[in-house]
Queue: 3 jobs
Job 1
Amino acid sequence: MARIPLVDPDQPEAPGRETLLAVRDQIGTDNNFFLAVANNPAVLDSLVAFSSGVYFGGAVDPRLTELAYLTASVVNACHY
């Protein structure tokens, strides 16, 4: 069970609903991180704007993004 409630974008009164539906259309699924952040729609909008440029928009070469993930995993002794 999530400690932070997850927003259901299928509910008409959901905070950040339009943004969550746009993210769903872009990545093809709901992401729990975005659903949790949607409790504060202003933060959600800022996060989506940042993510669109860095992760989804192709501003950073996908190979460099993967290298950053791997580097962070090694530095933090996480299994990737």
Job 2
Amino acid sequence: TDASGAAIPNATVVFIQTQTNFTRTTTTNGQGEYHAEFLPVGPYTTKVEATGFKEVIQSGIVLSVTQQAALNFSLQPGAARKIPSSTSPARFP
């Protein structure tokens, strides 16, 4: 979403498994939603990019077996520039 909470369609979402460098890229739909299925378990860094918005990077995400995780991002308007979303480990049940 953007700062007002509006969906951002066609944003690129990249998942990088930090132990193996496995990468999966997906794009948000018209409602700003995305799906990345069958990701290998382990620690991840996620990057989100969209035209007219600053890039958001979130690290410390840890996925486990058969887990369904929901990650939401808020993008700020501006030129592409890396903005760390979180550097603390995130674990999902």
Job 3
Amino acid sequence: MNDKGNGRTNSLEDMKKSEEAKAARRAEMLFKAESRRNKLLGLWAAEHMGHADPAAYAAEIVAVVFVTPGIENIHKKLHADLEAAGKPIPLTEIARKSQELFLVAEAQVLEEFGGPLA
């Protein structure tokens, strides 16, 4: 009888570990998609501004969330930078573009790394 009990316990522990691994994988994939979206958003804004080094600007945008977490902070920075460059774009348009680019980033990450994001 102990063997059956241990089998159930092991089975439950295995299921728990499996679910934890799946959740960690989903979190990793979501992080990658969000980072990719932020890079694409930076490249999009750099193009509008006529930035001399779009890749460097995109990297700067990706880094924003490590200093001040939240996509709203990226939107605010983009809005301020675009306005300073004389190419203002409303926050609502930046947010819409962000959502659009998340779908692009999600597809790219799924193609590149496989696995679900949610």
